[in-house]
Design a protein that fits this description.
Layout: E1 7-8, H1 15-31, H2 39-61, H3 66-92, H4 100-107, H5 109-112, H6 117-128, H7 162-169, H8 173-186, E2 190-191, E3 194-195, H9 201-225, H10 230-252, E4 271-272, H11 276-283, E5 286-287, H12 292-298, H13 304-309, H14 318-331, E6 338-339, H15 341-355
Parallel strand pairs: 1-4, 5-6
Antiparallel strand pairs: 2-3
């Protein structure tokens, strides 16, 4: 049975959206900037690629002692975080280059770090971005039932302790995504308003080939090449994923799952009584938006409101565009959530505790 198709009841071109669109366009035109990658972004790509391939080469070199190898494993995992947030994510939104073919090519860097690019695209773009925080339609907020992030999910007795056990599970997020969730998603038919009765056969082929490739280079080759006991190499593999999983969780959860995050539900006719743009502002949150370093590391995802309003713009511009959106929200009396990094994490933990108890 297909999920009811929903839509926003108010026009997209609200005064707020027109205002920020015009001012964003003025920002790019007046400075003769491209909306896609600039020279700073190209340099960033080179730095990330050097970090990824360099740390992997050193891991296989057998030139580093055991303690140093564990440090390299952490660094290698961190380079995967940078790839996911700064390259793969932008490319999947067509935000990295002007050329759609180049964006598609670079979006396959998801597969390079073990995540299926096809599933990410339809789950993230057709479900999460279209219907952010809408129960039953935003798949990103209902990924695992063991953690209750949505009021619509039935409260179980163990949710009472989720503020304790959920953070302990976050380091395993990437392992779950790579080795379980991607396969489960191929059995899923409904993504937002879109129904997939059959996924293309080539995507099944790419799924298994890319998983085999990832498992081979990330674990099998190190087991063969590195002159350390197998259990130490396995620990290094897990350390790499603990970095990747932890960073995925602490960057992605606090932008939509905080104490004051709304989870609007459509009426019986499938209508959400809001406009899409205002809905994106109200259901998303920034954290540490004034830190250029954090913006650089997170691929702009800490300035999350801009990303949800203009996902096709390269994240290298989000730091400045956040000021435009913040001022626009103030002019139109729309709540704009800005948190410190520590404040967002604390609020997320409080949210987990709150969601583990009866309303």
């Amino acid at each position: 049975m297909e999920t009811i198709k929903i839509k926003f009841g108010m026009p997209l071109q609200s005064p707020f959206y027109k205002d920020i669109k015009d001012r964003t366009e003025e920002y790019f035109v007046s400075r003769s900037y491209s909306r896609k990658a600039n020279s700073a972004m190209i340099l960033k790509l080179l730095i990330i690629a050097t970090l990824f391939f360099g740390s992997y080469a050193l891991l296989l070199s057998n030139l580093i002692n055991a303690a140093g190898m564990f440090g390299l494993a952490l660094l290698f995992g961190f380079s995967m975080v940078l790839i996911a947030f700064n390259i793969s994510h932008d490319a999947s939104h067509g935000a990295l280059f002007r050329s759609p073919k180049l964006n598609t090519l670079f979006s396959y860097t998801f597969n390079l770090i073990g995540v299926n690019r096809y599933i990410w695209d339809i789950k993230h773009n057709l479900s999460h971005h279209a219907f952010t925080n809408v129960p039953g339609h935003d798949m990103d907020i209902e990924q695992v039932k063991i953690v209750r992030l949505v009021p619509a999910i039935k409260l179980k007795w163990f949710h009472r302790y989720q503020h304790i056990y959920a953070p302990a599970l976050y380091p395993f997020a990437s392992l779950y995504m790579i080795f379980i969730k991607d396969f489960q998603m191929f059995a899923t038919k409904q993504y937002g308003n879109s129904t997939f009765h059959d996924h293309p056969r080539k995507e099944y082929f790419i799924l298994f080939i890319s998983k085999l490739f990832y498992f081979s280079y990330a674990l099998v080759i190190p087991l063969i090449v590195i002159k350390l006991p197998w259990w130490q190499i396995l620990i290094g593999f897990l350390l790499m994923h603990f970095v990747l999983g932890t960073m995925l969780a602490i960057i992605l959860f606090p932008v939509h799952a905080l104490e004051d995050s709304p989870f609007p539900e459509p009426d019986e006719e499938g209508i959400i009584n809001n406009s899409w743009a205002i809905h994106q502002v109200e259901t998303s949150t920034n954290f540490g938006a004034n830190s250029r370093l954090l913006c650089w590391l997170c691929g702009g995802l800490n300035t999350h409101i801009v990303h949800h309003l203009f996902p096709s713009i390269c994240h290298i511009h989000y730091y400045e565009l956040t000021k435009i959106i913040r001022e626009g929200a103030r002019r139109h009396n729309i709540k704009f959530r800005d948190n410190s990094t520590a404040g967002a994490l604390v609020s997320h933990l409080n949210f987990l505790k709150m969601m583990g108890r009866p309303s």
